[in-house]
């Protein structure tokens, strides 16, 4: 152990207390024994440092900080150097604000476009997500601050996010849901990691020894600390036993006492506790020693603008309507041009240092703005006056810049989307405007996939995603050609949400979320099934054209020449995909294995080399529990997006596979994935598919969500559930998600012992549950008794000063 001297001076009570936070954001300290406290803050696209009373979902405002574009936006840049630069700026700002750990990046896989938190994640592809995350982590950590990639792993829906059980087969888990984290850990060298709230195949992520010990520490060599998501520690003792270090936020003395009892009663070996303390101290001591950095707010703002600009995706440019010529007569229409939608709601919400608005900054561009109009209400209600005003303005212009997008309630932490359409009032405005002019450029702000089947009504379509506090200028830079767009989509835009295999049961409402589609996530499905999409993964246009030539496939990588054949300078994101037709396993026809963003002057050519790495040819063999290479001839494809392969070669690879899991999986082999039977999925899973075991009317359990009180036996509990629902609906109507209510709605009963700062312990939760289940007096007695016992032990810990 590295910190034997310190640890030998700590009592069991002190060691146990180090495994829980001191407050919502701080770790426990013992200054007299050389143990400082460190401060953790969200993340991921800015620093959300709360001063004064902390609450994890941001009821209390945080100190102003630069709001960079969200992860979904930055991913579209496909630019590792840019992400590292943003990470460095984030790390410096964290350091200036006295934050030691930035809770991010978030890199869960976008399993379904309707996940409410997709705006906080990078991609549907694990390789891309991992590369983006690793770059961001390197940047953050270059300032002596730790990054904390999250939420590890298979956390793909917000509904019942704290108790949902992700049922996923091992090969899919390793190839899709953990590969990104592997890259983040190995290449980013993350000093901490946050476990997901959910269970994975029956075990809470925070208690999963296979995940936290076998995979994370032993296989990937992780040497940082593991922190639970806020309120996400279920059985704290099991967590510590299996490799988790820190339970956050503070649970008062609740978690501490659980550990003390477990050691005293022989359920937890003190040696294991010492190991966890040692591992945690290694990071805490290192972080507390680094010197404070300072940042220049204006320069941070400019970097935010650059990051947003390099991430904008041009989706359509009919008749080369863009870039706008100098002095073009434009009408600026849309609520988002007045009040930008620039970040998502939830724990990542940043209080920006400044906020650019298109309507204010457009005067700095060489355009003739003939009129402005809001056009629609932010929430989806009709307003004829706004519509009429917008149409009148549209008639006077040569080109309409129509700012559309998703409002705050449409995508948020704690809330999955119910559809992917734009609000109806915006679509109506678009319809009406396209009747009076055919020169419409739609400018989109949204953190996740939207239905774009209306794009025939516009000549130009530009997607800025959620572009941070400086996004307004970034977009105008692109619209006016000051910057040639170079972003490409990091997720597929399907023709309809039902085309996405996981949509059949998304979000899962019961105990289990069945990952029946296996490896067929995002483009892996659409490409293999040869199913049409609206805009493919990796797609994005430029104001120039590129040509790809002279492919040479070498043992270590692939080489080709990229030429800018147009008349303006620009950057192209060239993508490497690999596939194998002769595989005995079911596989996606193409998988992303590398990419390069290359800047070229008009007429310029460059030789590009994309190296192969340990991920290029591997698959996960469930028989040997290891990544292996199947021998065979691989297709090596270079594309400008996943559907447009521009160069193709091949390479024979020797394999390491002696035996291969040859399962009978006809639906997977035929990519007939929308109706996989339980029997077939069970073969992939290697065990029976779990059956829902809770039904309405049944008694509620510790891990059932508070929302399920709607079906409780006790009328009191049902009344509480109704009040919760009424308040949520009210917030929804106002167009502003109430994060704390949403948190409660999805929170399981057991989290009452984790989110009340130690006021309630597990025995009291059990008493409350007895009340909920219709036994009022018995439950009340249980609760009061547990409360008294807790007060007694609290007193003895106070006497011992721990
Ligand atoms: C979120 C995390 C966040 C944490 C602290 C949780 O609800 O899932 O992403 O870091 O709160 O705010």
Automatic annotation (TrEMBL):
Residues 572-642 form the Fibronectin type III-like domain. Keywords: Carbohydrate metabolism, Glycosidase, Hydrolase. PROSITE patterns: GLYCOSYL_HYDROL_F3. The keyword Hydrolase applies. It holds the Pfam family Fn3-like. GO terms for molecular function: hydrolase activity. Belongs to the glycosyl hydrolase 3 family. This is Glycoside hydrolase family 3 C-terminal domain-containing protein.
């Amino acid at each position: 152990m590295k910190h034997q001297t310190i640890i030998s001076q700590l009592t069991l009570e002190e060691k146990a207390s180090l495994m829980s936070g001191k407050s919502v954001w701080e770790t426990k300290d013992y200054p007299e024994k050389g143990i400082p406290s460190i401060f953790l803050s969200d993340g991921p696209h800015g620093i959300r440092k709360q001063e004064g009373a902390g609450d994890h979902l941001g009821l209390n405002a945080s100190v102003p900080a630069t709001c960079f574009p969200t992860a979904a936006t930055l991913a579209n840049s496909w630019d590792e150097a840019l992400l590292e630069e943003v990470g460095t700026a984030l790390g410096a700002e964290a350091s200036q604000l006295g934050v030691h750990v930035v809770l991010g990046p978030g890199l869960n896989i976008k399993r379904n476009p309707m996940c409410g938190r997709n705006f906080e994640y990078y991609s549907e592809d694990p390789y891309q997500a991992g590369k983006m995350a690793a770059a961001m982590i390197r940047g953050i950590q270059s300032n002596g601050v730790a990054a904390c990639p999250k939420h590890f792993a298979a956390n793909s829906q917000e509904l019942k996010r704290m108790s949902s059980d992700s049922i996923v087969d091992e090969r899919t888990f390793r190839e899709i849901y953990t590969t990104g984290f592997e890259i983040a850990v190995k290449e980013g060298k993350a000093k901490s990691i946050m476990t997901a709230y959910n269970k994975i195949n029956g075990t809470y992520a925070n208690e999963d020894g296979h995940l936290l010990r076998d995979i994370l520490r032993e296989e990937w060599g992780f040497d940082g600390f593991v922190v639970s998501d806020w309120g996400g520690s279920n059985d704290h003792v099991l967590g510590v036993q299996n490799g988790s270090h820190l339970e956050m936020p503070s649970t008062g003395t609740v978690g501490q006492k659980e550990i003390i009892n477990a050691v005293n009663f022989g359920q937890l070996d003190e040696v294991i506790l010492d190991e966890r303390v040692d591992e945690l101290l290694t990071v805490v001591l290192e972080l507390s020693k680094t010197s404070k950095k300072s940042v220049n707010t204006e320069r941070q703002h400019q970097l935010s603008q650059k990051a947003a600009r390099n991430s904008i995706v041009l989706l359509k440019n009919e008749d080369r309507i863009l870039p706008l010529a100098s002095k073009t007569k434009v009408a600026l229409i849309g609520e988002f041009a007045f009040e930008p939608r620039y970040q998502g709601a939830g724990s990542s919400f940043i209080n920006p240092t400044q906020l650019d608005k298109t309507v204010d900054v457009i005067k700095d561009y060489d355009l003739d703005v003939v009129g402005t109009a809001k056009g629609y209400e932010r929430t989806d209600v009709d307003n004829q006056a706004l519509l009429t005003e917008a149409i009148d303005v549209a008639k006077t212009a040569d080109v309409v810049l129509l700012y559309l997008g998703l409002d705050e309630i449409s995508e948020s932490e704690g809330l999955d989307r119910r559809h992917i359409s734009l609000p109806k009032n915006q679509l109506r405005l678009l319809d009406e405007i396209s009747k009076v002019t055919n020169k419409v450029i739609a400018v989109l702000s949204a953190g996740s996939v939207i239905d774009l089947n209306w794009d025939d009504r516009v000549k130009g379509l530009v997607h800025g995603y959620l572009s941070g506090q400086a996004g307004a200028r970034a977009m105008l830079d692109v619209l006016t050609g000051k910057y040639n767009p170079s972003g490409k989509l990091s997720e597929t835009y399907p023709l309809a949400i039902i085309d996405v295999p996981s949509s059949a049961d998304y979000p899962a409402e019961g105990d289990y979320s069945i990952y029946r589609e296996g490896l067929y996530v995002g483009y892996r499905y659409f490409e293999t099934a040869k199913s049409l999409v609206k805009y493919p993964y990796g797609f994005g246009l430029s104001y120039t054209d590129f040509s790809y030539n002279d492919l040479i496939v070498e043992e270590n990588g692939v080489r080709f020449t990229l030429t800018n054949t147009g008349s303006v300078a620009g950057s192209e994101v060239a993508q490497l995909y690999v596939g194998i037709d002769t595989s005995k396993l079911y596989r996606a026809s193409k998988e992303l294995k590398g990419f390069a963003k290359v800047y070229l002057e008009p007429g310029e050519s460059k030789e590009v080399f994309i190296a192969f790495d340990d991920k290029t040819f591997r698959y996960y063999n469930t028989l040997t529990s290891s990544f292996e290479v199947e021998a065979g001839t691989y297709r090596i494809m270079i594309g400008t997006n996943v559907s447009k392969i521009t160069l193709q070669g091949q390479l024979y690879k020797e394999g390491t596979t002696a035996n291969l899991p040859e399962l009978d999986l006809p639906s997977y082999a035929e990519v007939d994935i929308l109706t996989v039977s339980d029997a077939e999925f069970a073969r992939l899973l290697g065990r029976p598919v779990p059956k829902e075991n809770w039904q309405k009317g049944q008694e509620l359990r510790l891990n059932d969500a508070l929302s399920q009180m709607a079906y409780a036996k006790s009328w009191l509990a049902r009344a509480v559930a109704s009040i919760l629902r009424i308040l949520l609906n009210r917030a929804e109507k106002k167009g502003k998600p109430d994060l704390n209510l949403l948190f409660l709605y999805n929170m399981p009963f057991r989290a009452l012992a984790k989110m009340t700062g130690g006021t309630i312990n597990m025995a009291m939760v059990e008493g409350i549950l007895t009340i909920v289940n219709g036994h009022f007096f018995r439950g009340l007695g249980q609760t009061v008794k547990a409360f008294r016992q807790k007060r007694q032990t609290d007193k003895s810990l106070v006497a011992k000063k721990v």
